[in-house]
Structure formats: C-alpha cells, structure tokens
Amino acid sequence: MFSVSSLAGPGRFRPKPNDLTRLAPWVTLALVILLAWSLARVTWDMLAPPSAPMSAAGTVRPGPPPIVTQERRDDGLERVARLSLFGEAERTVESPPVPTEAPETRLRLSLKGVIAFADPSLGVALISGEGTDERHYLVGASLPGNATLEQVFADRVILSRQGRFEMLRLPRELMGEAAVQRGASRPTASQVGSSDGEAPVNAGLAADLAARRDNWLENPNRFMEAVRIRPVMEQGRIKGFSIAPRRDAALFRQAGLRPGDVVTAINGVAVGNIDDPQALAGQLSEAREVTLEVERQGRMMTVTLPLGS
To answer: Which residue, among 100, 98, 152, has the nearest Cα to 124 in the 3D structure?
Structure first.
C-alpha cells in the first residue's frame, strides 16, 4: 500500500530548505508574468473585433474584400469635411433685396427733390430733416435718424433703418413742377474756356446724336449701358455728374467730351437744381441742341451738342 512515508524512502529526492528559498523568487516572477499575460488576453478579447474563423490547420481563412459602396464613400468624405482640417470658410450673409415699395417712414424727413435714373442706385435725393438744412444725398449715404438711402425713384426714395425698409415720398405739389428752376447763372466769358481746338460738329454727327437721344429717351437703360455716370458732391450738395463712355468712345470724343468731364449744368440749369428729370427729358426730346457746362481738370467750358432740325 502506498503511503506518504514511502516518499521519504531511500533513493527519493528530498529538497533542502536552502534550495526552496532560492527557488521562491523565480516562482513568483513566473506567476506575475502569467497573470499579466492573462490580463492582456482578456483586454484584447474585449476591445478587438472578432477574429476570422480558423481552419483546421490553424490558419486564418481569407474572407472576401470589404465592399465600399458610393454611399459609404460619400459618407466618409462628409465626415472628413466636417473636421475642417484647413479651417472654416467665412460665411457671407447676403443682404435682402431692396424693394421698390415699402411702408411710409415715420422719420421727420422731407424729400425736396430727386435726380432719378433708370438704375435707382445711381440717383440723388435732396432731403431735409427736422432742424437740419436740406442736402443732396447719394445712394448709400447716412440720413438724419440713423437711416440709409437705398434707392431713388422719380417720386420716392427707399430708406433702410434698423433692418427694415421704409419709403419717403415726394410731396404732390412738387411732382407737377417743371424740372427747370432758376439755377446758377451760366459761367462768365472768363470762366468758359475754349473747346480745345475741336472742329465744329458736322451734320452726320448731329443726326447720329439725335438718333441716340431718341433711343435713350425711349429706353433709359440703353443710356446707362453707353455712358458711365457718377454723381460728384461738394459741401453736401450735388455738384454735377462725372461722365465717361462705356462704348463708342470715338463718338464721345467727337462730340467734344472727355472721360472724367463733370457736367455741372444742362441748358443753363445747374444739375443741383434739377428736381424732375422726366420733365427735363421731355424738353430735350424736342430740343435742336443741348448745351452742357463742363468742368475739365479744374477749368470750366461749354460743350454744345447739335441734335439736328
């Protein structure tokens, strides 16, 4: 019968106490390594995706390649775009379009006159406020009452104030008045210079100008396409209009005009005193000639445009 005492029989290995003492650190180290490996294995099983099925030989079976659809590709690109790797572009806020009609303004402003064009953004308005003198205002200028002039029409102007659009009408008694008022006197002989040696216009030019006048009066937009106009202000009042050709520069020069000329008066009426351009257009439609007072490089001169018989 097997007994414990038989282990201690002759020929059996019996470790000495000193040997056990030297062996203990190595056993402890082996246990620590085994514990660390076990923890790493558990962690990997929790975090890593399930492994591919193993074959009988212990090798990984190659699965079919992943199918990347267009939808998944687009979704991935969209996620990358949302990262804003190169920063975010500035967002531009589009201004609302300016209406042609709006509620009447409650500001204590008076519209004294307008110089309107086919393009309402090029007009000029003569406006006075409570306790302030009347002044000419270009589109985009600040008005009394923290308002901004947005557009100019023949009988009204559109303002913007605190994010809202408002309208200021021309009084009815001013709508029927003729455009021609007593303006500044024509320049004296000492003020009027020569025409730079320009040859007198011929009958062909007169006929050409007359045809263009009729065309422009019928469709003012064509005039704006042919001539570039920019209002010129001086001490809060309109001084005149700087003109330059958009097309037909040769005809512009033949008529005695130069790019950058500032027209200060038409037929003896100062531009700042023209309140009704439509009435003036009616007069020009029957005129045989038009006289322009022009400032060119600081010098005043008269340019006469014949329009035929």
So the answer is: 152
